[in-house]
Amino acid sequence: MTKTGPPPGVSASLLKRMAELGLIREPTHYRLVPGPGAVLDVGCGQNKWPGAVGLDISPDTAADVVADLNEFPYPLEDGRFDQILCQDVIEHVREPLRFLSELHRVAKPGARIHVRTPHFSSLLAYGDPTHEHIFSALAFRTLEHQIFPHYLNVGFRVVDVTLDFWDPLRWIGVAKLANRFPGPYETLFAFRYPAMNIRAELEVLK
C-alpha cells in the first residue's frame, strides 16, 4: 500500500509552510498552460486541458481525435489552433522535426506551441523505455535559426526556454544560474547538477 502524508520526521505544518514560501512545488506547478484561443492538446491522455481538442494514439483516453503521431498528416485541418500543448510527448515520437512541422501546419499564424520534455541530464529522460529522443535547451533554441532547412523548413520564433529543477537544486541557486547561463550549464555542469524538464514556448511564423 502506498503511504500518504509527510515523510518521517517532517510535520505537515512544516511542509505547508515550505509550500507557502515556494520552497516546495507541486507537480502541477510545471504543467503547461495555454493562452487564449482554440487549444490542441497533443498526447492528452486522461488529463486533457479543459475545452481543448485532444489528440492521442489510444481510444482509451480523453482524446477527441485518435491518431498515431508517427503517421502523417494528422487528421486535422490546416491553421486551426491558437495554442498547442505537447506535454511529455515529443520524446516519444520517431521524427521530432517532422512532428513539429505537422504542428506548424495545424497552427494559426502567430500561434504558440508549448512543449515540455525531460532534460538530457534528467533521470526522467532515461526512465521510460518508450522514449525515442532526449533534448537540450540548445536543441529548442536552434529551431529559430533553421540550421537544417532540409529537415525543417517552417518558421518558429523561440519565445522562452526554461529549465526546471527539483526543489533541493532550486534552494541552492542552481536553477537560477542554469537558466541565466544555459550554455555553460549544459556543457560543463548538467550531469553534476541535473535538471528535471525543459519547457519551451514557440511562436508559429507563417
Describe the protein in words.
It contains seven helices and seven strands; from the N terminus they run H-E-E-E-E-H-E-H-H-E-H-H-H-E. With 206 residues, the chain is an alpha/beta fold. It has a single domain (37-205), classed as 3-Layer(aba) Sandwich (Rossmann fold), CATH 3.40.50. Strands 3-2-1-4-5-7-6 form a seven-stranded mixed beta sheet. Helix 2 links the parallel strand 4 (81-87) and strand 5. The longest helix has 11 residues, at 96-106. Residues 1-6 have low confidence and may be disordered.
How would you sum up the global shape? globular
- Kindly report how far apart the N and C termini lie: 52 Å
Instruction: Estimate the strand proportion.
Output: 15-25%
Structural class call reads: alpha/beta
**For the largest beta sheet, what order do the strands appear in spatially?**
3-2-1-4-5-7-6
Average predicted confidence as pLDDT: 91
What is the top-level CATH class? Answer: Alpha Beta
Number of helices: 7
Going by CATH, the homologous superfamily would be Vaccinia Virus protein VP39
What kind of assembly state do the chains in view correspond to?
single chain
| Helicity, as a percent range | 10-25%
Radius of gyration: 18 Å
**CATH-scheme architecture:** 3-Layer(aba) Sandwich
Low-confidence runs (pLDDT<50, min 5 residues)? 1-6
CATH fold-level label? Rossmann fold
Tell me the major beta sheet: 7 strands, mixed
Q: Tally of extended strands?
A: 7
- Provide the succession of SSEs: HEEEEHEHHEHHHE
Please tell me the total number of domains. 1
Annotate the secondary structure layout.
Layout lengths: L11 H9 L18 E4 L10 E4 L8 E2 L14 E7 L8 H11 E12 L4 H4 L10 H5 L13 E10 L2 H5 L2 H7 L1 H8 L7 E9 L1
Parallel strand pairs: 1-2, 1-4, 2-3, 4-5
Antiparallel strand pairs: 5-7, 6-7
Helix pairs in contact: 6-7
